[in-house]
Design brief:
The protein is about 50% helix and about 20% strand. It has a domain at about 40-105. Strands 1-2-3 form a three-stranded antiparallel sheet. With about 110 residues, it is of the alpha+beta class. A hairpin with a 2-residue loop joins strand 1 and strand 2 (about 35-40).
């Protein structure tokens, strides 16, 4: 059985991860640890429970405080989200809102 990684697959994975990675303008401090980069993954329907999708599209802070800890790596705590620099919150929120758009809308987007 061949267990060597496929280069094409690795490149695709790297591109997909890069699209969902945000470099924070103001790092999050947790003790001696400094979080400078956060990677988000597309949420599943269950991870959106308790949140109105329209709130996420409007970058509602409370909705983002609920969803970001569920889909971030490293995992952001609700308190981390509350203390984010507004520019970083907008960057992360924009990624989350983008996850809610259908592929056709993303393909038609000039920035896609």
């Amino acid at each position: 059985m061949n267990t060597a990684p496929t280069p094409a697959l690795d490149q695709t994975t790297a591109v997909a991860a890069g699209d969902n990675t945000v470099t924070l303008d103001t790092p999050i401090q947790r003790g001696e640890t400094s979080i400078t980069v956060v990677t988000l993954r597309r949420p599943k329907a269950g991870e959106l429970r308790g949140v109105a999708l329209t709130d996420l599209l409007q970058l509602d802070v409370t909705a983002l405080q609920t969803v970001l800890p569920r889909i971030s790596n490293p995992m952001l705590l609700k308190q981390d989200v509350a203390e984010l620099d507004p520019a970083d919150l907008v960057q992360l929120g924009t990624k989350v809102a983008g996850f809610l758009l259908p592929k056709a809308a993303l393909d038609a987007s000039p920035s896609a």
